[in-house]
Request: fold
Amino acid sequence: MSAIKVLDLDASAYARNTLHAEDRAWVEKNCYVDIWIEVIHAVGCDPIAMLPFVVAIDFEGDQWTFYKPKHEQLRMLYGIDVQELNCWRPLVEHAVEHLGAGKLISTEADAWWLPDTSGTDYRRQHTKSTIVLNELDLERRKLGYWHNAGYFTLEGEDFAKTFRLDIEPDPAFMPFYAELVRVDRLIKREPADLAARSGELLALHVSERPLTNPVERFAKRFAEELPKIQDKGLSHYHAWAFATVRQLGSAAELASIYLRWLAGGGRVGPDAGQFAPAVEAYDKISSGAKSFILKAARAVNGKKAFDGTAIFDDWARAWDTAITTLVAKPD
Reply:
């Protein structure tokens, strides 16, 4: 069987979206929103339009919202249709079927077998992540896939393990969750039209914002949990930081970029217009969160006292400023 591909991409020449540029404070956000940034970019649309959901993130108690786009909004903005894939047979068979029909597949995967995570998870630890399948060569055992901030290939043992080939059937194995992504009805809108539709979504997500300042609740929880985090060490801290500070900081950076894009009518410009106070506030949270991760890591590693009161107070004020600006619904 010859190779199957939905989009004609070359991993070695792939140019990722500017949201994943190296000069971003947070190059990678979270595995699910990252793949959507790149898939939407790869089909020739602007992923910034989908970002209003970041303004509604909340502190959930042991983590910040693992933010992601809503499927119905992807359809409204881009004509992309996402449906759950019923994995009633081996995933590789579904991949042959649906990639061959021009549909992408989003699926959970074990980062242990994803070579793009070299230096972190690859062949080091089993971590659930999300990838999107685009190209499949069953004979050569080669896969082209989006993951995190780019488009990559894997082959050989990584291919076999990702699809659980050459393994005795295990009735106790729980299949990974997967989704079908149809791009056959793709809509490429003009920037002004896309911005107008996206602005409607912003109003919706602002109405879904947290009822109380989530940064204040996060500050209280951090003060209570810091001794426990220090007792468990750096490995536990990094997992905690990814679930908390990284989600807050990366969402704030995306919110800043989005509002400048919206103010520019579908193009990011230097002038944020009436959104300027919110942009400045989100930038403060984003940059502050980046430095906080390093400061807190040193405190955890050295088991030293760390008073984050002033930092959290600054973020809480910035959060209030951002939300107040957005609730005002500038014209």
User: Anything to note?
Assistant: The mean pLDDT is 95. The longest helix spans residues 214-263.
